């Protein structure tokens, strides 16, 4: 941050406190989190505001869809926002490019400030209702085998939560790999061609402006830069971090790190490709519902449930939050 961020609400850290806090800043997309303050974006600029966490009453994710807000549908067509509510009744809404950055930031806030609410009031009500319906589906008298399996999965979940960042990174890299793999090479070639043509158009326009004036060359300059920005914003143009090889390397490195971690844990019940606390939780859920009593059976049912989900399926907010995180782990491995 070149400029000093502007305080929001009644935040008033001293210049020295703010300078020290910025040294500990961890960036999440266009926002960030320090030890004392949360740093927020404007529509165009990153981390231009800050708020003392002592003055924050609630932080949560808002997902805008085709009908606005959470609708229960459209798993793959969301626009993420971070909403920060202050104790004085005001709030700040920040747009994000990637939903994973919002989730990572909320995880960090939950870890650093365990008492901080990370759902909206309406979402908390929906979650309570969903939990009540979920508990109603649970079998009251589970078999001994089912109870033992749940105990194993609970312990596995606790192990993964000790290094939640690694599981989160694995899910993020899986989604990134899936996205990059799905881009048609023809589109990339077309994007490069359009970009080069736009660059030539802009350069020709600049030449005309210098030789013949703004009226003659201005249109070419505007048209060239318009197409340049259009191609860049499409995220199809290949770059150092936007290509298939980069996605493969990130995923393989993180998966290798997870495999090394799990090798040190005796008889870990999940393969490294699916090692995430949410996967454990979903496996425990299908056992509590009486659908199976074994680890293998629970994993197969989790795969079946995830396969059945698509953008037209209605889900609860809890289900949505889980699926957008862990489904890429399964799709990138082709549900192996």
Automatic annotation (TrEMBL):
Sorted UniProt keywords: Membrane, Transmembrane, Transmembrane helix
Membrane-crossing residue ranges in chain numbering: 187-206, 218-237
Name of the protein in its database record: ATPase P
């Amino acid at each position: 941050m070149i400029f000093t961020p502007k305080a929001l609400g009644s935040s008033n850290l001293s210049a020295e406190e703010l300078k020290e806090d910025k040294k500990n800043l961890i960036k999440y997309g266009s926002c960030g989190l320090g030890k004392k303050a949360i740093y927020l974006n404007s529509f165009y600029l990153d981390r231009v505001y800050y708020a003392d966490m002592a003055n924050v009453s609630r932080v949560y994710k808002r997902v805008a869809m085709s009908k606005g807000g959470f609708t229960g549908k459209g798993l793959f067509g969301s626009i993420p926002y971070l909403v920060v509510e202050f104790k004085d009744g005001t709030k700040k809404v920040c747009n994000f490019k990637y939903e994973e950055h919002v989730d990572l930031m909320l995880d960090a806030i939950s870890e650093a400030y365990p008492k901080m609410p990370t759902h909206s009031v309406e979402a908390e009500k929906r979650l309570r209702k969903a939990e009540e319906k979920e508990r109603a589906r649970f079998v009251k008298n589970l078999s001994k085998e089912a109870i033992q399996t749940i105990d194993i999965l609970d312990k596995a979940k606790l192990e993964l939560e000790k290094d939640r960042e690694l599981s989160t990174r694995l899910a993020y890299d899986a989604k990134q790999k899936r996205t990059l793999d799905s881009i048609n090479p023809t589109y990339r070639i077309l994007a490069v061609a359009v970009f080069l043509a736009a660059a030539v158009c802009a350069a020709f326009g600049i030449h005309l402006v210098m030789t013949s004036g703004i009226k003659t060359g201005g249109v070419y300059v505007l048209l060239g830069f318009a197409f340049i920005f259009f191609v860049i914003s499409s995220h199809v143009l290949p770059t150092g971090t936007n290509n298939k090889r980069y996605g493969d390397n990130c995923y393989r490195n993180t998966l290798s790190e997870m495999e090394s971690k799990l090798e040190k844990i005796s008889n870990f019940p999940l393969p490294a490709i699916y090692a995430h606390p949410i996967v454990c939780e979903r496996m425990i859920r299908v056992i509590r519902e009486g659908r199976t009593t074994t680890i293998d059976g629970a994993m197969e049912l989790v795969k079946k449930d995830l396969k059945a989900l698509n953008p037209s399926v209605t889900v609860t907010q809890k289900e949505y939050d889980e699926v957008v995180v862990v489904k890429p782990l399964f799709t990138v491995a082709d549900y192996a």
